[in-house]
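Per your request, structure below.
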């Protein structure tokens, strides 16, 4: 089965799209409707989804169900399926999509195959609208995987829209003088569903979900359109006696209300048709509409919600790209955005054109798939950069051979010549070299070099104060020149004294 099937799911509706043999996507109209209301009916004998189930629900049938994403919180209640088994409420969407696949096989593929025979090979893609939360997407993924859907992908629609616009250079093509494609620092996508405003902030086109989001309840529509739609609903329900609910019917009347608002007639008459088939013609007084509009104070709440999210992102208004989905109908809101932000793009791309990414950009699809096996927490090194490893320092092995290692050590390298020592006093004969200190001292530091010998005293063989000083030979004794003076010689004149002996060397002093 060479077909891609895409089911776009919101909290209140579903649409079914397909592509055959890589061709353009087309919408599958179920019972003549593009948008399938998310209502279910199952009594054990028959199963229905869409408009027929909605009629039963509005008729208070106990086997009809609505508000699926609220029902799944009830984990104990069950419903009867076609085979008579009791199934949990969480299986309602699974059964509904399988019902649509069988209808697709009948009408488009003209095949007798049933979902049970193609489930494992079926290329099924669930795409989720802005009102579906991330935990709800993962919850549905677990349900389908547990039922044998091995070729299923879960993707957020706004991620697809952002990448489609970027790939076609409709947003962020160039920025400033850098000329870098897709250079915006952030993107804000504004969508309107069931009257509520959904604002998503993406910090990059590769982000599969928005970094921040904000929901503005009852802010998606022009206040004037909302007033007219309420008047149309109230008038038609009162005349027809229909049991339809305002919450589900009012969003379907906004396009008609917009037509009335643009009318030049002061009291236009329009035909209102509810989803249960009841019809009534209603007259709207525009003067009354203007009176009610004067009391509305939330004209700026939609714009304020966008500004609040943009300021939270820390990105300036010149650095963010604004994308307005075609579900936003308030022209006043669009003009405010255009007057404040530099880059505002109203998106009118058909859904089937955006879904073309499934055929021509597998990298974008695989990256956005919630069931992708890629570990988002472990970042891969960028191209051209090897992963960083711890540096281990190991001793480098010797490059010498064993014979070279056993050779005698080389002679020490001669260093700079030592500075000359202070000259010692010249002696005759020269002093012998002092003995080397004994090696028996162990680890004691070697003694300092010996001091020069002190001058020799006249008393002879007395050691100097230095422990290892060497004894120096004494000078020659002086010869007697004259006889000593005696008593008998007293009174007689003495001869002149002999000349003094020669002086000792300069270093020695006579004491």
């Amino acid at each position: 089965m060479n077909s891609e099937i895409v089911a776009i799911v919101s909290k209140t509706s579903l649409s079914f799209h397909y592509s055959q043999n890589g061709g353009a996507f087309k919408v599958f109209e179920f019972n003549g409707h593009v948008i399938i209301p998310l209502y279910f009916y199952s009594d054990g004998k028959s199963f229905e989804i869409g408009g027929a189930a909605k009629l039963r629900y509005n008729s208070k049938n106990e086997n009809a169900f609505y508000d699926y994403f609220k029902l799944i919180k009830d984990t104990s209640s069950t419903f009867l399926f076609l085979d008579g088994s009791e199934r949990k409420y969480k299986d309602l969407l699974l059964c509904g999509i399988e019902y649509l696949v069988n209808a697709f096989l009948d009408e488009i593929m003209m095949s007798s195959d049933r979902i049970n025979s193609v489930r494992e090979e079926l290329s099924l893609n669930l795409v989720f609208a802005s009102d579906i939360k991330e935990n709800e997407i993962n919850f549905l993924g677990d349900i389908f995987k547990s039922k044998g859907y091995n070729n299923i992908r879960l993707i957020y629609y706004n991620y697809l829209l952002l990448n489609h616009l970027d790939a076609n250079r409709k947003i962020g093509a160039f920025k400033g003088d850098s000329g870098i494609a897709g250079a915006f620092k952030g993107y804000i996508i504004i969508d309107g569903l069931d009257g509520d405003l959904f604002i998503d902030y993406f910090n990059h086109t590769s982000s599969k979900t928005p970094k921040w989001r904000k929901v503005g309840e009852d802010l998606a529509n022009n206040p004037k359109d909302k007033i007219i739609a309420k008047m149309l609903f109230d008038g038609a329900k009162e005349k027809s006696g229909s049991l339809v609910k305002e919450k589900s019917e009012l969003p379907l009347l906004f396009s008609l209300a917009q037509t009335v608002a643009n009318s030049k007639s002061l009291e236009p008459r329009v035909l209102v048709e509810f989803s249960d088939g009841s019809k009534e013609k209603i007259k709207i007084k525009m003067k009354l509409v203007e009176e009610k509009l004067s009391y509305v104070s939330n004209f700026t709440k939609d714009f304020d919600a966008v500004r609040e999210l943009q300021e939270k992102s820390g990105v300036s208004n010149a650095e963010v790209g604004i994308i307005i989905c075609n579900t936003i109908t308030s022209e006043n809101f669009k003009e405010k955005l255009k007057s404040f932000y530099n880059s505002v793009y109203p998106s009118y791309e058909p859904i089937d054109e955006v879904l073309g990414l499934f055929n021509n950009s597998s990298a974008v699809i695989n990256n956005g798939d919630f069931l992708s096996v890629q570990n988002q927490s472990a970042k891969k090194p960028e191209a051209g950069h090897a992963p960083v490893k711890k540096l281990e320092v190991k001793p480098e092995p010797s490059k010498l051979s064993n014979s070279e290692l056993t050779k005698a050590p080389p002679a020490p390298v001669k260093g700079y010549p030592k500075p000359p020592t202070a000259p010692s006093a010249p002696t005759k004969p020269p002093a012998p070299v002092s003995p080397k200190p004994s090696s028996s001292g162990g680890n004691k530091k070697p003694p300092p070099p010996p001091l020069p010998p002190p001058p020799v005293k006249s008393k002879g063989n007395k050691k100097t104060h230095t422990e290892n000083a060497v004894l120096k030979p004494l000078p020659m004794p002086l010869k007697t020149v004259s006889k000593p003076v005696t008593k008998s010689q007293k009174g007689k004149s003495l001869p002149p004294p002999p000349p003094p002996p020669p002086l000792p060397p300069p270093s020695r002093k006579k004491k």
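Residues 202 and 347 are 16 Å apart (CA to CA).

Regards,
D.
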